[in-house]
Design brief:
By secondary structure, this protein is α/β, with parallel strands linked by helices. The protein has 14 helices and 14 strands.
């Protein structure tokens, strides 16, 4: 059970609204309610009177409200977590696997889930049906979604918060402060990239990887199938700091068998040989296009390595270095994201920091997308299998 403070806030018939009138510089007569002093250090002739007005050097005290007397999370024995399993080749959306995994992880008594009124799309509603006392609907109020997640986490719970990837931008300041504060919260952004289709660019998360990578101490994960999505959802429960899982709207074939391990900071190499001439690197939807491109290139006699870079931060630099060694440094990185700060940026930074020579072609969403089918938008953005094939040919001079 959530502690009494949480239960009371959830059951209140009328929301509590606090209004406050603040005055800049209150208590320091020389600058009180005057413009031009916010965020500035006082000169000495004003600093000394200010210190005196506030009680004198070494005597200034600041009183803050005491925390609620409500107890921290009660100690309740966790039940075993049994993650959902999926058959190879079945088409399952990673957002659906996220919801399935939440229900499984809910066997841990400290897991709490919050949603921004899109639970039927993020699939958090399944958790709410199984554990209604640990599910909170925050409606279309993303800042409150994160603020509540942080507050509940401080009480000792493992909080997961979900909404569309694009909508987390509304709460970015709250997310970065959670990173600065070292608070462990788990975020899931669904409906990412042009792959969402007809909803159009206002709903497409195309900046989210860059934003989440930039948060201090963050972890950024981008599963490509249901098995990896479920495993990474469970792994997030024990991660420190802000962790982010990016999920896909559409359903794609399951690539991995039940029980496959997906360590944070790892990757999966799905095709490899000593004769590989180019490496195709993707995550999420683009991994499936990399696999399709590899088949087309194999028919032309071009062997390709295919890497699932499901952990974007931290990155599996060892697998990237090996791919560069085998292929003569020829890499094609493909992502359903704007070019700035995403998967391509992570790969380029890794090679630059290591001083490892590589020829990297970066396919990303360079223009403003429109509305269309996922296939049409992937093609228009230049991140479909056909574009990957051409990029590999160009690298090889074929």
């Amino acid at each position: 059970m959530i502690d009494r403070a949480l239960a009371d806030s959830r059951s209140a018939d009328v929301p509590t609204v606090l209004l406050a009138r603040t005055i800049k510089g209150k208590g320091v007569p020389e600058i009180e309610d005057k413009n031009g002093w916010h965020g500035r250090a006082l000169p000495l002739e004003l600093a000394e009177p200010a210190v005196a007005a506030l009680g004198g050097a070494g005597n200034a005290t600041f009183a803050s409200p005491s925390p609620s007397a409500a107890p921290d999370r009660p100690v309740v024995a966790d039940a075993p977590v049994s993650l959902p399993t999926y058959d190879l080749g079945d088409k399952v959306a990673t957002r659906k696997a996220f919801g399935d995994a939440l229900v499984a992880v809910g066997a841990r008594a400290g897991v709490v889930v919050l949603d921004g009124e899109v639970g039927n799309s993020t699939h958090t509603q399944e958790f709410g049906e199984h554990y209604p006392d640990r599910f909170f609907q925050m409606y279309i109020s993303e800042q409150m979604l994160i603020a509540a997640s942080v507050g509940i986490a401080i009480r000792g719970y493992q909080t997961y918060a979900a909404t569309f990837a694009a909508f987390f931008s509304r709460a970015y300041d709250f997310i970065r402060i959670a990173g600065i504060s070292g608070i462990a919260i788990r975020l899931c952004g669904s409906h990412a990239g042009v792959e969402i289709g007809e909803d159009g660019p206002s709903q497409m998360g195309l900046e989210d990887i860059a934003a989440m990578r930039a948060v201090h101490g963050s972890t950024v994960l981008y599963p490509s199938d249901a098995t990896s999505a479920a495993a990474l959802t469970a792994a997030m429960a024990d991660l420190p700091g802000v962790s982010y899982l990016r999920t896909t709207r559409g359903a794609y074939p399951v690539l991995y068998r039940p029980g496959e391990a997906f360590p944070v900071g790892g990757s999966k190499t799905l095709r490899a040989s000593e004769n590989d001439r180019v490496a195709l690197i993707g995550a999420g939807v683009t991994l499936h296009h990399c696999l399709a491109a590899a088949e087309l290139l194999a028919a032309e006699g071009i062997a390709c390595r295919v890497i699932d870079l499901y952990s974007v931060k931290p990155l599996d630099e060892r697998a990237l270095d090996l791919a560069a060694d085998v292929t003569g440094g020829r890499l094609v990185v493909v992502e359903d994201h704007y070019p700035e700060g995403g998967i391509g940026g992570a790969v380029l930074e890794a090679f630059n920091d290591a001083g490892h020579p590589a020829q990297i072609v970066h396919l990303a969403v360079h223009g403003l997308p429109g509305s269309g089918t996922p296939a049409e938008l992937m093609e228009a953005a230049g991140i479909s299998a056909g574009h990957i094939v051409q990029a590999a040919r160009d690298l090889l001079g074929a």
